[in-house]
Every structure is written in structure tokens, then in C-alpha cells.
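Project outcomes to date are best conveyed with an example. Our students and postdoctoral researchers have been running inverse folding experiments weekly, and each run begins with a structure described purely in C-alpha cells. The record below, which covers 209 residues, was selected by the lab manager from last quarter's runs and is presented without edits.
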């Protein structure tokens, strides 16, 4: 394929320094081969800049679908030497801002899509929906995109309390809700009054329950 520079911004809109080397289609999957052209990176431990490349290897990332087809990025990443004698980290792997994070197998746009699907549809139905959207994943990885919000140190002024079933007719818990904001605050592992009293003691501030 000819000049690919016009496609770089479309495929990597938030990733600085990305260069698209090759674009192919294999069995209905769009494969984008790319590398980072950033010359200097800072050690994540001591922030010392480095240009010394130790080695290179490939990563494979799921990206947002194009034209209804699944997109996979085959990214060449580099391992750099750290130049600081006192730093305990001898080498470090580059992370492309706006595209990669440690151990991730998908770009941020796909992870955001998975998170939205998991919130709405859950595990198995969400997996089927993702397959139809050309961003396939497993149920465990899909639900792994959900993170519990941080529990506030103080209770909301108006606290709603209700029970719910982890497993109907067997295991129940308690959900606590900020009534004025219509947002959940915390989940308790059971529905006993002792558990609620302990939570209220640890999180003062409720005026109406």
C-alpha cells in the first residue's frame, strides 16, 4: 500500500510519534503494523532520559474496529537502557502514550468500549455483543474492565439502604446509596444490622437513613 501517513491520525489519534508501516487484511481482520518514532524516553523509576536501545520485540493490541472489521495493531516496542548509575532499574520498556499500558492487550478506545458493554450487559451477553461489534473478548476480561469506585470517608447526608441477592435465596448483601446524587456508595457482604452499624461508625455524616 502507498503512503500511509494519512491513516496514522485515524488509527492512532491520541498516540504521539506513531508511524504506520504496513496495513493488510488477513481473514477479515485489518492488521496495522506500526512503531514509535520517539527518540528519547525517560526511565519510569528515576526520570533520567535515555536514547540507548537495548532490544526490540512485538506486541499485539486490539483496536477500535474499522468498517465493521476487527482491527489488530502489531506494534514494535523497544527496551531502553537506563543511564543513571544509581538507578536500580537497568532497562525499561517504552509505553506509547495514548495507546499502550503495561501488560494491556487492547488500546484505550477498545477498553472503554468493553467497560461500557460490561456495565450495560454484563459477562456472557456482553461477550456476545462484543463479538458482533468486531471487538471480541472473553467474559473474564470484559468484567475485568469494571473497577469499584472509591468509598468516601464520610457517609452522604441522605443514605439509602437496601438489600440485594448475590445468589437468590442463599446469599444476600447490602447496597448503600447516596440518595441526593442517585449514586451507589458501597456494598456490604451481608445484610445484618451489625454490618450496617459498623459501616456507619467508620463513615460518619449520615443525617437521614
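After processing, the design step wrote out the following sequence:
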Amino acid at each position: 500500500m502507498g503512503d500511509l501517513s494519512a491513516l496514522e491520525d485515524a488509527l492512532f489519534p491520541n498516540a504521539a510519534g506513531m508511524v504506520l508501516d504496513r496495513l493488510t487484511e488477513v481473514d477479515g481482520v485489518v492488521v496495522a503494523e506500526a512503531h514509535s518514532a520517539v527518540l528519547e524516553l525517560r526511565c519510569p523509576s528515576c526520570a533520567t532520559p535515555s536514547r540507548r536501545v537495548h532490544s526490540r520485540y512485538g506486541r499485539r493490541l486490539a483496536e477500535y474496529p474499522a468498517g465493521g472489521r476487527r482491527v489488530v495493531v502489531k506494534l514494535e516496542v523497544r527496551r531502553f537502557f537506563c543511564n543513571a548509575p544509581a538507578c536500580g532499574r537497568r532497562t525499561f520498556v517504552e509505553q506509547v502514550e495514548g495507546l499502550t499500558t503495561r501488560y494491556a492487550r487492547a488500546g484505550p478506545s477498545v477498553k472503554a468500549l468493553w467497560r461500557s458493554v460490561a456495565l450495560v450487559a454484563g459477562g456472557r451477553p456482553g461477550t456476545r455483543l462484543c463479538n458482533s461489534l468486531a471487538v471480541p473478548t472473553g467474559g473474564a476480561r470484559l468484567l475485568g474492565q469494571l473497577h469499584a469506585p472509591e468509598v468516601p470517608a464520610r457517609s452522604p447526608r441522605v443514605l439509602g439502604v437496601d438489600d440485594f441477592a448475590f445468589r437468590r435465596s442463599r446469599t444476600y448483601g447490602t447496597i448503600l446509596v447516596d440518595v441526593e446524587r442517585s449514586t451507589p456508595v458501597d456494598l456490604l457482604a451481608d445484610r445484618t444490622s451489625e454490618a450496617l452499624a459498623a459501616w456507619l461508625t467508620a463513615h460518619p455524616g449520615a443525617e437521614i437513613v
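Strands lie at 18-26, 29-36, 41-42, 49-50, 53-66, 69-81, 91-93, 159-167, 171-178, 183-188. The mean pLDDT is 90. The training component of this project remains on track.
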